Amino acid sequence: MDTTHWIPSQPYAARAEPGKHDFSGNCVPRQDGSSLYPSQETFSVGVFEWLRRGRKGDGKCCKAGPVKVRIKGLVADPAAVLAKAKEIAAALDAGTYTGPKNVKV
């Protein structure tokens, strides 16, 4: 499972680009497949657009905008959720996403 997207040592700012879409989630299962909460069966990630931070949009840093699409899936199969999030983020970047706001994997 590719979890490099969730490594805390890779700060958001390192991959932030205004106008581009990315995803995040606090309850993504660990690399060993365990969950932060033992009784947790599902988790979700939100796909959002990076926005400029600062006055008049001229700030050097970015911030996460509101979630545009939420992807929910099983803790037992986090790779499917992360793959779908990457796919939707790419479609939003291309301007071709026409799917629902909430997606179950």
What series of H and E elements makes up the topology? Answer: HEEEHE
| Biggest beta sheet attributes | 4 strands, mixed
Helical segment tally? 2
Low-confidence segments:
1-11
Measured between the Cα atoms of the first and last residue, the distance is 16 Å
Helical content band: 10-25%
Please report which band the strand proportion falls in: under 5%, 5-15%, 15-25%, 25-35%, 35-45% or over 45%: 25-35%
Shape label:
globular
Strand order of the largest sheet: 1-2-3-4
Number of strands: 4
Mean pLDDT: 80
Structural class: alpha+beta
Q: Write down the domain tally.
A: 1
How would you describe what is shown here?
- With 105 residues, the chain is α+β, with helices and mostly antiparallel strands.
- The protein has one domain (12-104).
- 20% of the residues lie in helices and 30% in strands.
- The protein contains 2 helices and 4 strands, in the order H-E-E-E-H-E.
- It has a 4-stranded mixed β-sheet.
- Strand 3, helix 2 and strand 4 (102-104) form a beta-alpha-beta unit.
Q: Short description, anyone?
A:
With 105 residues, the chain is α+β, with helices and mostly antiparallel strands. It is built from two helices and four strands.
Question: How are the elements arranged and paired?
Answer:
Layout: H1 12-15, E1 21-24, E2 42-52, E3 62-74, H2 78-94, E4 102-104
Parallel strand pairs: 3-4
Antiparallel strand pairs: 1-2, 2-3
